[in-house]
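If you are new to this repository, start here. Below is one unmodified record pulled from the training split, so you can see the exact layout before writing a loader.
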Amino acid sequence: MDIYIKKAILHAFDPGNPEITFSENLMELTPVMLDYVTKKVEKIYSDDAKRGVLSAENQFLSHVTDDFIPATVAVANFWREEFVLSEKQKQNDLLFVDYELATQPHFAFIRLSLRDSFSHDFDLANGQIKIRKSESSLPGAGSAADEAIAVNRVTLAYHLLEKRIKYNGKNYNYFSENLLAEKPEISVKKAIKAIKKTAETVAKSYDDDDFAFSQKVQNAVFHAVEKQDNLNPEVLADQLFADNLTARLAFKDKVKEEIPEKVNFEQMPMEKIEKQLANQKLSLSNGIEMTVPQSLYEDAETVEFIQNDDGTYSILIKNIEEIKNKW
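And here is the target side for that same chain:
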């Protein structure tokens, strides 16, 4: 992912203070800080991200202007109005980033919940190493943001990582519902789960829910990801229930409740998603567990699944040149 960081600034939110503590100057982007900020932005483009396109009149977008520092102050105050309603608030740093992705300007807002961390000091007088606790440490560069939005300022497309807040005993997706006032698309991760769950539920109602069908679902999703195409419920229905029109229609109806349209893979970490689906993991009733790569799972010359007359299964693994014992 070709991200070019132009500017960044950090503000501080403490629930014990009536106002946000605003930085007056931009962050100094030393090599270490540049790497940290870049990784934080990269984490927004994950399979957990919800996506959509903001309207030109969107209230959140109205705060994102060309004047970067005042824009971050406006967005932070707009965010605070909703977030302060949440129960059990913690200290957060608010990271704002002006960057380019694929040569197009982007704006990111990243909420970083501060954590307790531990370090050590060496007490020369006692010859002892002592553990010291810090209550205001930023999360590491490799961890995902607690909450974040990245907006393409040309297309107005956005990627959103959000967490619900609890208010008056109820949970709210306050960021998309109140700040954006938009209903984003389901994330790729949740879309895959919804497709697998729906397909297996429909198959079960037609007595076709054995392990082979579950693997068939994963196989169909894997090939869609491998092609970096999209998840199209219509196409998947034809693949999974080719011989059963009633089941095919039932799958289409049920999956549309969560996935109204096809799910595209634009600006998604395809290598990560493909890796998650690349292996078929089988747990057998006798305690044996197997991991079979997709490419071999479909090769009858390597693995063969046999259904016996008594209803049990046999798995035949062929042409093995070497076996190693892994401890």
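Two things worth knowing about this chain: The chain has a mean pLDDT of 82. The longest strand covers residues 3-13.
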